[in-house]
Amino acid sequence: MLAATIAFIVSLVLSALILPWMIIYMRSHDEGQQIRGEGPKWHAKKSGTPTMGGTVFVLVASIITIVACAMTGQLTKSVWMLIVALLGYGIIGFLDDGLKLFYKRNLGLRAWQKFALQLVLAAIIVALAASDHFKFALYLPFAGVVTSTALFIFFVIFWLVGFSNAVNLSDGLDGLATGLSFIAYGTYAWLAFKAGQAGGLIFCLAVMGGLAAFFMYNHKPAKIFMGDAGSLALGGGLAAVSILLNRPWSLLLVGIVFVCETASVILQVISFQTTGKRIFKMTPIHHHFEMLGWSEWKVDIVFWIVGLIGSAIYLAIWG
Length: 319
Description:
Layout: H1 2-28, H2 54-71, H3 77-103, H4 111-131, E1 138-140, E2 144-146, H5 149-170, H6 176-195, H7 198-218, H8 227-244, H9 251-254, H10 256-275, H11 285-291, H12 296-318
C-alpha cells in the first residue's frame, strides 16, 4: 500500500510539472485540436486548444508502475499486460492525434487502420496472458464458468477494443472522461487492494495520480485535451485490469457511462439507417444533453455522479 501511495503522489507531481511545459510548447508551435464540424457549433471556440495531453500521464504512469513494481518485486507478466495495454493503446492514439495535427484536420488514422492496430495489440495482450498461465475461463450469466479458450480469447479482444473506443467516445467535454476514468480506476484500485494484487493496485494509483494532475488543466475551460493518446489508453487499461482481477463484467457497472455513450452511438446509427429518424439530438449522448441546454459542467457532474453510483452499486453487491 505504501508503494502504491508513493506511486500516486509521484505520478501526480511529475504530471503536474510536465503538463504546463507541454501546453506552452504546443501553443508556441500552433499544435491545437481541430474541432469536428458536425459537433455542437459552440465547440468551435475550442479549436486550437493543445491536445495529446494524455501522452504525459500515460508515460508517467507507465514508468512509475514499472519502477515501483520492480522495487517491490511485483513486476510480473500480469503487470506487464497492464502496461502494454495502457502504453500500446496510447501509442495508437498518439499516431491518430499526430496525423490530425500534422495535416491540420480532424481525421487521423482511418477507421479500419485504427481498428486493425487495436486488434493486433489485443492479440499481443492475450499472448502475454497465455504466457503467464492465465486462467482461460469466463463466467457467463445463466451458463456459469466456461473454460473455452477460443471464447475467452475472443472476449478479451472484444473487451479491450470495445472499451478503448468507449472511453474515446466519452472524451467530448472538458474534464468528462478524466473524471469518469479517475472514478473507474479508483474502484479497481480498491478491488486490487482487496484481492492482494499489489501490482494492479500500484498501476491503478499511478494512473489516478496522473489523471488528478491532468484534471487541473483539463476542467472547463480546458487548457489541454487528452486526445486519443489518453482516451484509448485509459479504456485499454481499464479493460486489462478488469480481466486481470477476473472481474471483466464489472466494467458494465463501473464503466456504465462509457457503455451508455457507446450504446447511444450504436442505437443512433441503427435507427437512422433503418427508419431515417434519430433517437437523440446528437451522439455520443453527452452532446444530446448539451443540445437540450445543459452546460458542460452540468453534464460533467451528472455523468460523474452516475459513474460513482455504478461503482458504488458494484462494490456494494460484489465488492
